[in-house]
């Protein structure tokens, strides 16, 4: 098991390195001279050249990458030229919002997706299964901005149950904070559950054909025990993968949903950085988000081992 | 004579397929008394596994079962799901062919044993655990206590089949169905598993059905043998009578197809030529006629019924029974 963990950890290193290189390149390849952007169009060529020298922009690309990487490895991701905030400060300020949104969205998504998948797999092919599979398809094809607007219309405008936009920190007003998060989380969850439901349903249907399920029936076990103990665990590997990918994706914030509901998360930070050409913030945030994604995937691999003893013991 | 523990009466199983209905089991009658062993023999696809699934009520959802499966005075085919559930695993147990796939890979051996015991017997966890250890010891598993926390993949194939047998025996069933229990195992393990089954059967006085494609497996172990071909029982007799004088050409061919140790090297095996008929296109005459060296025109025209001649308990379905004077048969 320890061997397995170490192997997975080592495998992460080249991925993280590649991520850092790509992030750096994408930010550097954006058109336009950063020094010119910062100084504005009134700047003299001498001033621009001086700033370029100060920022190291006159150095070759590979040199700039290595020096940035060197700083990153020392924990210095740089600071915004606009606000003077460091990348870590900016992210630390925004991440609780995106994290809370992600957790609530995944929780609601699993809460809908998993029971529906089990119910469908247990009676695959009947009217309920066909209806839910069809509904999942329909939900999957609805863009999130449309779902967001429909939810706002229904729950905020018509019913006045929930606020349409806004945010208060949990520490200031816990209930109010949750009220602000319900609609955005629901918007994301409505896009998440169809995927969750479809992978779990098809894996469950395959598992239910297994010999050991026939034996579980022949042993006279209760149907609920067969479904939840004998079938769910061996069927949930793909589910864990999908959930991991979802979490990794939502970790980086959601540009559209955070914008619509005016939530100050990572997504809005990124959008702002792109608009203002705040390359240091952009580069740093993308690197952090991508690293978070890699780490979530590492955790997913560890979960496989928890779910399937054969992986834990190095078989299969 | 007491009434039999299991009576299979006129059981037929049809499976819908894209090419039409497949008749997997074609009006079979069998019975088995408490404590006795019935061997069901036939080649792949002859319906023997489907017949056992019909008894266990584990047929695929789309399969259509007709006839009656009377077990201990109740018709399993018409039993409510909850009553059936209470019966399965307690009075009616099964050992499947492949122990690599019949145990759940993500549950410990202890869980898989104890859940059956606790479902059917009123035992608390420590008692169920104690019983599990006893069962594992009884089926010849060394260090049974350590095995409880292990997973199936940590055991060999033979071990796994022993564990599957321990699960089947856990609630003292009245009937154990062993569906090709040794086919997936190494030859050296096969005899051990069969001997284990026979020993536990005698000790617990349970009835057993052994399903196999190998006449050699049932030879010394079954009280009665039913030979199946194309969904039908084509010969049925007490084991000793069958091996002394088989009447059905198919049974003879099955026996001839077993390799003999004393045969000279490079002796070709007399394999049965051809293949069983397409079960979605039943033949008008005897199903074995196209492959039978005794077949005549009559065999292609009409189906021979299952009848007896010299001995009332030796049944066969053939117009030209071997080792019987011609014309004695139906």
TrEMBL record, chain A:
One of its GO terms (molecular function) is dipeptide transmembrane transporter activity. SUPFAM superfamilies: MetI-like. GO terms for cellular component: plasma membrane. The chain crosses the membrane at residues 9-30, 101-124, 136-156, 176-196, 255-275, 281-307. PROSITE patterns: ABC_TM1. Belongs to the binding-protein-dependent transport system permease family. This is Peptide ABC transporter. It comes from Bradyrhizobium nanningense.
Automatic annotation (TrEMBL), chain B:
Keywords: ATP-binding, Cell membrane, Membrane, Nucleotide-binding, Transport. Residues 6-255 form the ABC transporter domain. One of its GO terms (biological process) is peptide transport. It is found in: Cell inner membrane. It is a peripheral membrane protein. Gene3D superfamilies: P-loop containing nucleotide triphosphate hydrolases (3.40.50.300). One of its GO terms (cellular component) is plasma membrane. SUPFAM superfamilies: P-loop containing nucleoside triphosphate hydrolases (SSF52540). Pfam families: ABC_tran, oligo_HPY. PROSITE patterns: ABC_TRANSPORTER_1 (PS00211), ABC_TRANSPORTER_2 (PS50893). Involved in beta-(1-->2)glucan export. Transmembrane domains (TMD) form a pore in the inner membrane and the ATP-binding domain (NBD) is responsible for energy generation. Belongs to the ABC transporter superfamily. This is Peptide ABC transporter ATPase. It comes from Bradyrhizobium nanningense.
């Amino acid at each position: 098991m320890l061997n397995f963990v170490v192997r997975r950890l080592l495998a992460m290193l080249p991925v993280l390195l590649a991520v850092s290189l790509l992030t750096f390149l994408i930010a550097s390849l954006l058109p336009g001279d950063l020094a010119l952007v910062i100084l504005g169009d009134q700047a003299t060529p001498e001033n621009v050249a001086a700033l370029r020298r100060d920022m190291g922009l006159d150095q070759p690309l590979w040199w700039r990458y290595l020096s940035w990487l060197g700083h990153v490895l020392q924990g210095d991701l740089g600071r915004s030229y606009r606000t003077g905030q460091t990348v870590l400060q900016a992210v630390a300020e925004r991440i609780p919002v995106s994290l809370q949104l992600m957790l609530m969205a995944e929780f609601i998504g699993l809460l809908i997706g998993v029971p529906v998948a089990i119910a469908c797999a247990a009676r695959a092919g009947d009217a309920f299964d066909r209806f839910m599979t069809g509904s999942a398809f329909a939900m999957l094809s609805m863009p999130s901005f449309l779902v967001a607007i429909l939810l706002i219309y229904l729950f905020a405008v018509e019913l006045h149950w929930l606020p349409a936009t806004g945010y208060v920190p949990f520490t200031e007003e816990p209930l109010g904070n949750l009220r602000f998060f319900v609609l955005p989380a629901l918007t994301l969850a409505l896009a998440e559950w169809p995927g969750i439901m479809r992978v779990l349903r098809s894996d469950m249907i395959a598992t239910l054909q297994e010999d050991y399920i026939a034996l579980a029936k022949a042993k006279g076990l209760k149907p609920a025990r067969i479904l939840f103990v004998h079938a769910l665990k061996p069927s949930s590997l793909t589910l864990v993968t999908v959930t991991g990918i979802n979490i990794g994706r939502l970790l980086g914030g959601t540009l559209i949903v955070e914008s619509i509901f005016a939530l100050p998360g990572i997504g809005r930070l990124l959008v702002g950085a792109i608009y203002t050409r705040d390359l240091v913030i952009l580069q740093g945030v993308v690197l952090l988000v991508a690293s978070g994604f890699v780490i979530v995937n590492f955790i997913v691999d560890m979960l496989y081992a928890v779910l399937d003893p054969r992986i834990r013991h190095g078989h299969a | 004579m007491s009434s039999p523990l299991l009576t299979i009466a006129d059981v037929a199983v049809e499976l819908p397929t894209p090419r039409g209905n497949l008749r997997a089991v074609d009006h079979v009658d069998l019975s088995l008394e408490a404590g006795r062993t019935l061997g069901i023999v036939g080649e792949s696809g002859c319906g023997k596994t489907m017949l056992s699934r019909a008894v266990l009520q584990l047929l695929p959802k789309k399969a259509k079962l007709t006839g009656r499966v009377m077990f201990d005075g109740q018709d399993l085919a018409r039993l409510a799901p909850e009553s059936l559930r209470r019966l399965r695993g307690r009075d009616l147990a099964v050992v499947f062919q492949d122990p690599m796939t019949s145990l759940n890979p993500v549950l410990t051996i202890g869980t898989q044993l104890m859940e059956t015991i606790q479902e059917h017997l009123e035992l608390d966890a420590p008692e169920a655990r104690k019983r599990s250890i006893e069962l594992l010891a009884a089926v010849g598993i060394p260090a049974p206590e350590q095995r409880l926390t292990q997973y199936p993949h940590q055991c060999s194939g033979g071990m796994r089949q022993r564990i599957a047998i321990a699960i089947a025996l856990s609630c003292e069933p009245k009937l154990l169905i062993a569906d090709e229990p040794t086919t997936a195992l190494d030859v050296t393990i096969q005899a051990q598993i069969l001997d284990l089954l026979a020993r536990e059967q005698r000790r617990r006085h349970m009835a057993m059905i052994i399903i196999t494609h190998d006449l050699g497996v049932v030879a010394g172990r079954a009280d009665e043998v039913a030979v199946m071909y194309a969904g039908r029982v084509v010969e049925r007799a007490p084991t000793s009578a069958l091996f002394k004088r088989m009447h059905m050409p198919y049974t003879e061919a099955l026996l001839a197809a077993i390799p003999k140790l004393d045969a000279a090297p490079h002796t070709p095996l007399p394999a049965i030529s051809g293949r069983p008929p397409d079960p979605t296109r039943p033949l008008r005459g005897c199903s074995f006629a196209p492959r039978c060296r005794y077949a005549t025109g009559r065999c292609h025209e009409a189906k021979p019924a299952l009848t007896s001649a010299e001995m009332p308990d030796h049944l066969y379905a053939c117009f030209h029974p071997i080792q019987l004077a011609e014309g004695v048969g139906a």
